[in-house]
Structure to design on (204 residues):
C-alpha cells in the first residue's frame, strides 16, 4: 500500500515566537510588519507602528489613530496602496481626512491613469465604493495627489533599508522589535532635520 504523505509540522521560531512568516518580495520570511505614515513634502515620519499581522488591510484604522496620537492632528489627506484597500477602509474617510487608496496594484493603477482620460460630467448614480474610489483616482486631483505617494513613503523605506542598512531587527519579541522600529523611525527624522538645518544654514 502507498504510504500516507508526510504532513509538515507547523513551525515556530524559537528565538522570536512573536514574529510571523510573511510573504515578501524575496519570498517567505520570518518577520514583523513595520508601518509608517510619511509627510509628502518633507519625508518626515509622522506616525509609526509595528505588528505581527501580515495583512495591511487591518492597519489603516489603527494607523489613522496613531497619526492623531503621534502627530497630534489628523491627516488632511491619506494615500495608501492597494494592500490597504477594502470597502470597510473606504468607510473610514471623514470630514478631517480624505482617503486616496489604490483599488488595484500599483502598476495597474498607474497604467489606468496613463491610458484613461479624466472622468467628465456628474458622478453616475449607483456606483459601488470601489468604483467611486477608482473614479476619484482618475480625476486630475486624484492623479496629482496619489503620485505623491511614490516620492514620500517608498523612498523612506528605501533610505532605511539600502542607505542605512536596515535588513533585520536585532531585538526579539514584539515589544523589543517595536522599540527598535520606533528608534529607526526617530533617527530617520533626526537625519532629515539635521540635513535640512545644514542645507539652510549653508544658504544663509
Amino acid at each position: 500500500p502507498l504510504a500516507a504523505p508526510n504532513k509538515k509540522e507547523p513551525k515556530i521560531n524559537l528565538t522570536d515566537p512573536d514574529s510571523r512568516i510573511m510573504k515578501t518580495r524575496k519570498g517567505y520570511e520570518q518577520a514583523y510588519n513595520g508601518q509608517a505614515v510619511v509627510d509628502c513634502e518633507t519625508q518626515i515620519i509622522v506616525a509609526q507602528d509595528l505588528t505581527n499581522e501580515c495583512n495591511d488591510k487591518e492597519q489603516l484604522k489603527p494607523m489613522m489613530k496613531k497619526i492623531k496620537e503621534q502627530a497630534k492632528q489628523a491627516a488632511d489627506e491619506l494615500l495608501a496602496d492597494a494592500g490597504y484597500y477594502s470597502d470597510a477602509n473606504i468607510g473610514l474617510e471623514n470630514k478631517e481626512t480624505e482617503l486616496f487608496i489604490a483599488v488595484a496594484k500599483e502598476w495597474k493603477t498607474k497604467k489606468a491613469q496613463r491610458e484613461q482620460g479624466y472622468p467628465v460630467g456628474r458622478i453616475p448614480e449607483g456606483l459601488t465604493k470601489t468604483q467611486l474610489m477608482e473614479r476619484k483616482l482618475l480625476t486630475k486631483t486624484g492623479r496629482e495627489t496619489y503620485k505623491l505617494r511614490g516620492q514620500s513613503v517608498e523612498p523612506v523605506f528605501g533610505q532605511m533599508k539600502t542607505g542605512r542598512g536596515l535588513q533585520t531587527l536585532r531585538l526579539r519579541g514584539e515589544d523589543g522589535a517595536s522599540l527598535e522600529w520606533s528608534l529607526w523611525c526617530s533617527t530617520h527624522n533626526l537625519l532629515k532635520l539635521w540635513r535640512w538645518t545644514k542645507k539652510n544654514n549653508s544658504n544663509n
In short: The helical segments are 60-71, 87-90, 106-115, 129-138, 140-146, 153-163, 173-203. The beta strands are 20-24, 27-31, 33-38, 45-51, 77-80, 98-101. The two ends are 85 Å apart (CA to CA).
